[in-house]
Amino acid sequence: MSPDPDTLHGARAELLATAQRTDGWTRGFPAVFDGAHPASVLVLFGRLDSIPAETDELTVAADLDVLLQRRAATLSSHPGQVSFPGGRREEQDADAVATALREAQEETGLDPSGVEVLATLPEIPLAASNHLVTPVLGWWRSPSRVVAVDHAETVEVFRVPVAQLLDPETRFTSTLHRLGQTFKGPAFDVDGTIVWGFTAMVLDALFDAAGWTLPWDRSDERPIEL
Q1: Full-model pTM
Q2: DSSP code per residue over the chain
Q3: Quick check: 207 and 64 in contact, CB under 8 A?
Q4: What is the Cα–Cα distance from 91 to 104, expressed in whole angstroms?
Q5: Treating both helix axes as pointing N-terminal to C-terminal, what angle do 197-210 and 11-19 enclose, rounded to 10 degrees?
Q6: With bands split at pLDDT 50, 70 and 90, how would you rate the model's confidence at 125?
Q7: Tens digits of per-residue pLDDT, 154-199?
Q8: Do 123 and 39 form a contact (C-beta atoms < 8 A)?
Q9: Which positions ≥6 away from 143 have C-beta within 8 Å?
C-alpha cells in the first residue's frame, strides 16, 4: 500500500514510511544456499542540486538522485554491472550499517558523516554470489565528492536523477537466458547505461512501496548480454 499523501510531506518522509512496510520485500528474489555470506549495500538518496532545502518537506521525489556505481569488468562477481556501493561484511563491522558505510567510503570516497541512515531494510537473497544483502536506506544530508577510488573494483561512480529512473520511457523488462531458463526483471536504460538485476529490483520495489512508480510498459522485453 502506498503512503497516505495527506499525512506525508516530502520524499524523506515517504522513504521513512516505506521502510516501515516491508511485507513481501524479498518476493521474486531467488533463494540462496546454506552458508550465505552477509553483506550490505547503501541505497543513498540526495538532492540533485546538492543544496540543502530549508526543510525536508519541500524535497519531493523529482528533486532526488541516487548514488550508483559500475563494477569493474574483471571482477568475479557481477562484473561490469551497475550496483549500489556495498560489499561483504567484515569482522570489524559492528552491524549492517557499518558495513554499508565502510564499503561506500572505500569505493566512492564519500564522507559517511554526511549520511543520515533512515533504516535498514530486511535481508535480500542474492543467489548469483550466495550473499544475504541488507539494503541500508540513506539520506544524503551533506553530499560530498565521489569518485571511483579503486579501479580494480569500481570504474565509475555516478548520481542518477530519480525522475529519470521513474520516466516510463526509461523502463523495460530485462530477459536473461541461462542454463535453459529465462529470468525476467525490471530494468532501466539511463542514457545507454543499463541498470538491471539486483539493483534494479531493489529500486523497483522501493519506488513501488513509496508510491512513486509511474505506469510503464512491462511487455517491452529486452535481452541482457553478459
Answers
A1: 0.90
A2: ----TTT--SHHHHHHHHHT--TTTTTTSPPPPTTPEEEEEEEEEEETT-PPPSSGGG--GGGEEEEEEEE-TT-SSSTT-EE-SEEE--TT--SHHHHHHHHHHHHH---GGGEEEEEEPPPEEETTTTEEEEEEEEEESS------S-TTTEEEEEEEEHHHHH-GGGEEEEEEEETTEEEEEEEEEETTEEE-HHHHHHHHHHHHHHT-PPP--TT-EEEPP-
A3: no
A4: 17
A5: 110
A6: confident
A7: 788 999 999 999 999 999 999 988 777 888 999 999 999 999 999 9
A8: no
A9: 46, 47, 50, 114
Cell 541516487 found at: 66
Residue type, 46: G
Chain CA centroid to CA 95, Å:
19
